Amino acid sequence: MEINLNNLSNEHSKILNQIWKDGISDYNRFYDSRILEYSNDLNYLLSGVATRDVYLSRIYESICYLKLLKKISQEKRIYSVKVKNLTIEKMLKADPELKKIRISFSIKKRIQELILIPVAYFLNIYRMIKEFILVRFYICNYDIPNEIILFDSFLIESSFSGGRFNDIYYPGLQELIREKSKVFYLFTILLKKYRVKLLQLKNSNIRFIHRYQFLKLSDLCLATIRPFFMFKYLHNKRVIFEDIDITKAFRYELIRTSVAKIIFDSILNYRFIFRLKQKSITVNKFIDWFENQQTDRGYSLGLRQFYENVEYFGCLGSLSFKTQFHLYPTKAEFDRKLTPGYLFVVGKNLIFDYSESCKELKLDTMPAFRYAYLFQKDGYKEDLKIFRDSGEFKILVTLPMELNQALKILKTISNIRIFENYNISFYLKFHPTYSLDSVEKLLRRNKVFRFPILNDNIKDCLVGKQLLISSVSSTCLESLAFGIPVLVIASNGGVTHLPFSENITKEIWDLCYDEKETLEAIFRFVKNYDYDRFKSIGEKIKKENFTKLDHFSLKRFINLVF
Fold first, then answer.
1. Which of these, 167, 151, 169, lies nearest to 317 by C-alpha position?
2. Alpha helices, DSSP H only, in 101-148?
3. Tens of pLDDT along 273-321?
C-alpha cells in the first residue's frame, strides 16, 4: 500500500484528525516536563522547538503522522510513504517499526527546503536592517514620557482608510486611548508600502512607539548571530515521546526554525524591553495581543527580567480553535511566567477552554471589538421575505489563504454545478491576501467555473445568504452566530482545525471531506431549511461566544486594563 501524506484518503484524514485531538493532552504534559525543561537558556526558550506553535514547529504534526502510519500498518502493509517535509522523514527513519518503509520525497523539494534555510536567514536580516533604517529616518524624533502603558496591536494595509488610521483590531477603542496620555500603541507592522504608511502614522494624532526607536545596531547583530547559538543543543540528550524517538527531528527543527522571522522578532522584543529599562522608562502596564507565540514570549521574558512587578495583560480579540492548542497556556508556561497573569477573551465559552488548560490563569471576557457587527440589526425579516418570495438559495463560499485548500473548495463547487437546475447560486469571497489579478490568474490557470466574486466586508457578504461554505476561518462561527448554516470543507493534506466547538448542534453545520459529502449536505439544507430555528440557534451561539460591545462592557474593560 502507498500512502501520500499530501493527499490522504477521506478515511485516513478522519483518523489523522482524531489522532491530533486525542493526543493534545499527552503532548502538553510532555512539553511541560521535557521540552521546556530541556534548557533554561534564553536562546532556547525563544527557539522554534521550545514552543507548541502549530504553525512554526512541525514536531507534533510529525508525531501525529507517525501514529497514523502505525495505525494503518496494523491492518495493511505499507510499502512506501510520500512525506511532506524533512522533519517527518527524520522521525520516520528513526522509528524501528516503520524505518523499512520506502520514503518518497523528491530531490527538488528536498533541495528547496534546505536552500530555504539560508535564504530565509539573509532575507530576515535584510528586512530587519531596512526597517531599522526607515524607522530611524522617519519617526525617531518622537517624544516619549518617563511613564507609559504599552498597548500591543497590528498595523496592516486595511488599517488606513482615506489616509487615516483606523484600528481594525480594537475598533472603537482608539478615541478612548487618545484621552489617556500614558497609553502608547506598540504596533507589529505588516505593510508593503512601509515608508508611506509610517509617514501617515507619524502625521496622525495616534501615540505610538516602534521597537526600532529604542533598539540599537548591537541588538540587530545579536539577532543575526543567534541562530548559531542553536548548535550547542544539537548533541544534548535524546528526546523520546511515548515510544517515538523524535531526537533527530527535534535537532533539525532547532536549525530550520532558528531563521524564521518570528524567531528574529522574539529576540528583538526581548531586547526592546531591555532598552526601555536602560532608558529609565517605567512601564506601568503592558497589554499584549496574546497568541502564545514566540513573539509574545520575547515580551514575557523581557518583562519578567526587567519589569518584574509590571501588570501584564493578555488580550485575544479573535477566536481560538481548540486544535490550535498552542493558544492555550499550560501550567508550566504560567509558572515560569512565560505568559500574562491575566487573559481576556471575547466570549464566555472560551473561558472554560482556557481554564481547562491552565487553572491558575486569571480569565475574563472583553468586548468582541472585531465582531461588534454581529449585534447590529441584521434585517432578519427582510431576508426571510426575500428568500421565501424568490425561492433562490444563495451560498457564500469564503476561500482560505492556503492555496491547495482554496483550490479544493473551488473544484468541489465547480463539479457540483448541477444546482443550476435548483435555483441555487454560489458567490465567492477570496482571502484579503489575494489581489484581483491573482484571483483572475488562479481561476484561469485551474479552469475553474466563473462565479460572482464579492469584495465587501464579511457582514455585507453574508447578508441574504442561506449557507456558508468555508474552511479554517473564524468566519464560520460568525456565520453561525447570524443563524446561517455552515459547511466546513476538510483538508486531505493535513489536520482540519474545526473553527468552532463540536458541541454546537449539527442541525446548523456539517464537516465534508469530498464532493459527495458536500452535495449531500447542501441537499439537506436546501430541502429542510428552517429559517426560524437557525436564527434561534444563532442567538444562543452569539450569546455564548461573543461579548457585546456596549457602554457597560467597554467601560469595564477600560477600567480593568487601563
1. 169
2. 107-138
3. 999 999 999 999 999 999 999 999 999 999 999 999 999 999 999 988 9
Strand 160-161 to 164-165 pairing: antiparallel
Packing angle of the helix pair 403-415, 515-527 (nearest 10 deg): 60
R_g of the chain computed on alpha carbons: 25
Cell output for 166 = 483606523
For domain 130-235+258-371, the question of CATH label 3.40.50 is answered with yes
Q: Please check whether residue 214 is in contact with residue 277, taking contact to mean a CB–CB distance below 8 angstroms.
A: no
Q: Are 141 and 210 in contact (CB under 8 A)?
A: no
- Taking residue 396's Cβ as centre, other Cβ atoms within 10 Å add up to 25
> Side chain identity at 243, as an amino acid letter?
D
Q: How confident is the model at residue 371 (pLDDT cuts 50, 70, 90)?
A: very high
Cell readout for 265 is 522578532
Judge if 130-235+258-371 and 374-545 fold alike in CATH terms.
Answer: yes
* d(C-alpha 474, C-alpha 482), whole Å: 13
Cell reading at 551: 457602554
In one-letter notation, the amino acid at residue 327 is L
Residue 201: C-alpha distances to residues 146, 153, 172, 173 (Å): 22, 14, 18, 17
CA–CA distance, 287 with 270 (Å, rounded to integer) = 15
Task: Find cell 481548540 and name the residue.
Answer: 322
Nearest C-alpha neighbor of 501 from the set 381, 376, 353: 353
Name the burial class of residue 525, with classes exposed (0-12), middle (13-18) and buried (19+) by CB atoms within 10 angstroms of its CB: buried
374-545 in CATH: which number?
3.40.50.2000
Q: What are 204-248's pLDDT values in tens digits?
A: 778 888 899 999 999 999 999 999 988 887 777 789 999 899 999
What are the helix (H) ranges across 456-550?
Answer: 458-462, 475-481, 515-527, 531-545
Tell me if 319 sits within 8 A of 541, measured CB to CB. Answer: no
CA-closest candidate to residue 415, choices 295, 279, 522:
522
Residue ranges covered by each domain of the chain: 2-112, 130-235+258-371, 374-545
Q: What pairs with residue 396 in β-bridges? A: 427, 468
Distance between CA atoms of residues 367 and 364, nearest Å: 10
Here the contacts of 153-156 (C-beta below 8 Å, separation 24 or greater) are 153/185, 153/186, 153/187, 153/188, 153/289, 154/187, 154/188, 154/189, 154/190, 154/289, 155/187, 155/188, 155/189, 155/190, 155/191, 155/197, 155/201, 156/190, 156/191
Nearest 5°: the CA angle 484, 487, 417 is 105
Euclidean distance between CA atoms 143 and 503, whole angstroms: 51
Paired residues of 510 in beta bridges? 487
pLDDT tens figures, 453-503: 887 788 888 988 999 999 888 899 999 999 999 999 998 888 999 889 889
Strands 486-489 and 80-82: unpaired
- The CA-based angle 49-52-54, given to 5 degrees, is 105
C-alpha to C-alpha distance for 49 and 302, rounded to whole angstroms: 19
Residue 450 CB contacts under 8 Å (≥ 6 apart), including other chains: 443
What are the backbone dihedrals phi and psi of residue 331, each rounded to the nearest 5 degrees, phi first? -60, -40
pTM of the complete model: 0.91
